[in-house]
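Page 47, continued from p. 46.
Same chain as before, 148 aa.
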Amino acid sequence: MNCSNENDQDKTQALDKLIEELRDNLEHTGETSLPNDIKTLYGLYDRLIQRHRLYASDDLIADAALFFLEEEIRHAKDADAMASTAQSENDIHAAYQDMMDAIVDVLKENGECVPADLKAKGFSQNDIERRWAMAYALARVKLNWMDA
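Result:
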């Protein structure tokens, strides 16, 4: 066995252990805290999908595929709507300022920001879905300017 396969197995085992801990917390307390690190969240997400495939019915997989296709359509429509809104406003930053400032604060504090951080700061799920991409990009640009 080569080093790469061993490393992949170690990562998979670590993710499985994390999943079990998170699931136990959720099952026993009704809540759990996901990691703030985006790389860990992506790994967790990918591993949960892999594990889900082991027991998911064909209908459930088809429903998930349909959900993701519909999500792609919603994302494209939202991006188009955001672009047209931005073009019609005098100041592109105005519509995203409060969320951008919140993201900057979280990034300074934690080094990373995920949508759940904004929900904890009082933003609605609808606002996050509509403004996250642009506000996050503007926050990153603002931090780069501040660091320069």
